Amino acid sequence: MANQTYKIWFVTGSQHLYGEETLRQVAEHSRTMVDTLNSSGRFTAGLVCTPTVKTSDEIYDIMLKANADPSCVGVITWMHTFSPAKMWIRGLKAFAKPLCHLHTQFNREIPWDSIDMDFMNLNQSAHGDREFGHIVSRMRRGVKVVVGHWQDECVLAKIDKWIRVCIAWADSAGMKIARFGDNMNNVAVTDGDKVDAEIRLGYHVDYYPIGDLAAYVDAVSQDEINALLEDYARSYDIAPNAAEGGRDRASVVEAARIEAGLRRFLTERGIKAFTTNFDALHGLHQLPGLACQRLMAEGYGFGGEGDWKTAALVRTMKVMAEGLPGGTSFMEDYTYDFDGSDSAILQAHMLEVCPSIAAGRPRLEVHPLGIGGKADPARLVFGTAPGAGVAATVVDMGNRFRMIVNEVEVVETKAALPKLPVAQAFWKPMPDLAVSAEAWIRAGGTHHTGFSKAIDAEFLADYAEIAGIEMLRIDARTTIEGFMKDIRLNEVYYKLFSLGY
Ligand code: MN
After folding, report:
1. C-alpha span between 81 and 210 (Å, rounded)
2. What's the pTM?
3. How far is the CA of 306 from the centre of ligand 1 (A)?
4. Looking at residues 360-378, what average pLDDT do you find?
5. Does the N-terminal or the C-terminal CB of the chain have fewer CB atoms within 10 Å?
6. Cα 305 to ligand 1 centroid, rounded to whole Å
7. How many angstroms separate the alpha carbon of residue 452 from the centre of ligand 1?
8. pLDDT tens column, 324-367
């Protein structure tokens, strides 16, 4: 998906006070750490060891170089020794990429028998990193702070999450999003300020007349259609009416035509996410359902009814999740099952749910849509396997973007759904439906979400920190009282505090 080799620069801070021998050991330790971590294969992007920085000029210089190198998606800083933090002001002010402060120490344990003042003077991150932390906080700069020994699995896991988010952040810089048709008429929550989105979140949203896409669909060759039909036969079970010779086979052929045309349209323009609108289908014979599902599975972001914010979020979550088990999809809160503490939500959409979350082999079916007045569309039908997941949305509050994240537990449906012709997931939101839904509603969240079983809330918290946007998290610890306090405090905070850096 990323199409590029990304790197994280590892920058160690110190000063000249310590003398050559100590600085030599500092550089050697940094090199050992970077080499060990790189050869562990634990990280999604490789680390680049940079020379120890000892002066304000060296810090400024390395930060400018990090900014200028397109393969560098973030910088990890570590103060093995004491690095007086006024030296960092100029460099941090200029630095425009994600920052991770790794608060670690080369030695895991204190060598009780041999420790002397030389050891103490070399292994000073316990106070050197606090000096650095002060200036980052004083400058109100977004940062990920990871504490622990650099070889501990929990430390590596946190760093790799942040690295994945850095890659997703780089991917969204200049990301093109296509809207086929506008936002659905009169719908508030899926709309928003596209100019502010480009300033804050980096992506660019353009409108394309559906007729432009229809021309691509009309130009698709029979060979391209046949290749896709073969792929469908290999990948899915096919309902009798949708199979070759079946009553509704023409709808599947038409769906393949739409898929090939849409893919070409997006590829030629370097578009990474898109929206459709069932109210704006002039020139298409059916709502793109199967095409949206299959393009999402390839890594495209998608939002229904013109929801470009969710389309962008789905793409970004897919980049974070690349290669991890679990799937990521566009989703919609559809119908409740009220059952006391087991209350849950049936999640689906009219058609467009990504088969990356499917439990088992999806089934290709054709059914009437009952909305939009077009021909019966093809779609993949499946359920979602039980397990932990996360549902997220970004809304425009007028003066800022707010991300809302809910931890959820996908559970088995209570029975089969023989008459429901769409893909679905059934989940219990944390801490329970009553608190989750009230919190979500009070936060102004959408009915649409980016849903993932591959990433957790920490990824999204890292993203919000990097983007400098508000994040409200609804999880097992959430109470309405605490959540309302957060909302009210944030209202003041985001009015007073200038966003971005
Ligand atoms: Mn929808």
Report:
1. 60
2. 0.97
3. 9
4. 88
5. C
6. 6
7. 17
8. 999 999 999 999 999 999 999 999 999 999 999 999 999 999 99
